[in-house]
Amino acid sequence: MRAVVVSEYGVLPEVRDVPEPSADAGSVVVRVEATGLCRSDWHGWMGHDPDIVLPHVPGHEFAGTIAAVGAGVAGWAVGDRVTTPFICACGQCEQCLEGNQQVCPNQLQPGFNYWGSFAEYVAVPYASVNLVRLPDELTFATAAGLGCRFATSFRAVHQVARVAAGERVAIFGCGGVGLSAVMIAAALGAEVIAIDTNEAALDLARSYGAVHTLTPAAPVVGAINDLGGAHVTIDALGSAEIAQQALESLRPRGRHVQIGLLPTAVTLNAGRLIAQELTWLGSHGMPAHAYPEMLALVATGNLNPAQLVTRTIPLTETPTALTALTTGTPPGVTIITP
After folding, report:
1. What are the strands, taking DSSP E only, across the chain?
2. Whose CB among 46, 158, 173, 313 lies 3.0–4.6 Å from 237's, allowing a Cys bridge?
3. DSSP letter string over 84-149?
4. 51 φ, ψ to 5°?
C-alpha cells in the first residue's frame, strides 16, 4: 500500500510503498477513505511523542470501510462503513468496564503507538470496543474529522463542562478543536467568545455561532470580564499563558476545561482558583459508546461538522502539508483522501 513514511524527525516525509497491516485476532483492517491532518500529527513528526518508533506512518483520525476482519470480532463485516476514536481502548481493564475508555491505561493510538492512517489501510485493535458504525448519509470526509477534533470537543463541551443554554463560553484557540467547540457550544445555546490570532479562523468562528471574537492583541481577560466573565473557558490550543488567562476570565465558580496539551512546567494562580471556587477539568477524547448522541445531533442538523472541512488534499500532498504546520495551522480542517 501507499503511505506517508517519516524516517527522520523534522525531515520531509515521503510517500512510498509499505506492507499492508494484517487483521490480527480481535482487530480489523480499514481501507482509509478519508483522514484528517491534525497538529498532533505535527508534534509526532517533530519527535515530541515518546511512543513513536521510526520509521513511522502518522495519522489518527479516519473513516473508511472494513477490508478484513480478524478472529474473534463479532458483528462486523467486510464493507461496513466505520470510524473509530483516536484512543483504541482495551475494553477489559477497570476504566473500560466503567465506561471510561478514553483513559484506558492499555490504550493504543494509531499514528503514535503503531502505524496510522496516512495510508491506504490502517489496523484497528480491540475492534469490538472501538468501531463506530457510520450512517450511510454521513460522508467519509465529515466522519474523519469526528475521530479526534470534533468528538474531543463534543465530550469536552457537552459531557465534561456540561455547558448549558445561556452560559458564556470562552474558547481559546480556533484550530480544528476550537472551531468544533465553538459550533457545539453555540448549538447548546451558549454565548460563545472565540479567541485566536488568525482573523480567517475568527471569521469561521463567527459563521459557526461565535457571538464575540477577540485577538490576543486586545486585553482578552478584561474584555471577557467586561461581558460578565465566562461560566466556562476552554484551552483548545495548549499554552501555559492561555491557561492562566482562561482562569482569570472565569466568573466565580466557573469551570475551565483543558484540552490542549500543556508543557510539563505550568504556573497557575492557585489562590484565585481556591478563593473563587473555580473548577479545573481535563478532557481527553471520547469513547466509541458515546458517539450515538453526537451522531444523532449531526443527523438532525443541530451539528454540522461538514462545515469545518475547508480543504481536501491527496496523499501525495500530505508531506508538504504536514511540514507546513511548522509556520501555522490553516483555518478549518484539512482532509486527506488516500
Report:
1. 2-5, 14-17, 28-37, 62-69, 81-83, 121-124, 132-133, 168-172, 191-195, 212-214, 230-235, 250-258, 279-282, 309-314, 333-337
2. 173
3. --SSB--SSSHHHHTT-GGG-TT-B-BTTTB--SSBSEEEESSHHHH-EEPPTTS-HHHHHTIIII
4. -80, -15
- CA distance readout (Å), 247 to 73, 87, 177: 45, 28, 19
266 pLDDT exceeds 90? Answer: no
Pairing of β 62-69 and β 81-83: antiparallel
The amino acid sitting at 8 is E
Q: What is the DSSP-derived secondary structure letter of residue 317? A: G
| Model pTM score | 0.93
Task: Check if the beta carbon of residue 321 is closer than 8 Å to that of residue 313.
Answer: yes
Upper half-sphere CA count for residue 296 (Cβ side, 13 Å): 5
Was domain 2-149+286-337 assigned CATH 3.90.180.10? yes
What kind of fold does domain 162-282 have according to CATH? Rossmann fold (3.40.50)
**36 Cβ contact list (under 8 Å, min separation 6):** 61, 62, 144, 145, 147, 148, 149, 176, 333, 334, 335, 336
Sign of the alpha-carbon torsion through 197, 200, 202, 204: negative
Give percent above pLDDT 90 in the chain: 88
275-314 exposure pattern, b = at least 16 Cβ within 10 A, e = fewer: ebebeeeebbbbbbebbeebbebbeeeebebeebbeeeee
Q: What residues does each domain of the chain span?
A: 2-149+286-337, 162-282
**Strand, coil or helix: 338:** coil
Instruction: Look at residue 34 and give its three-state secondary structure.
Output: strand
Over the stretch 69-124, which tens digit does the pLDDT of each residue have?
Answer: 999 999 999 999 999 999 999 999 999 999 999 999 999 999 999 999 999 999 99
**Banded model confidence at residue 216, pLDDT cuts 50, 70, 90:** confident
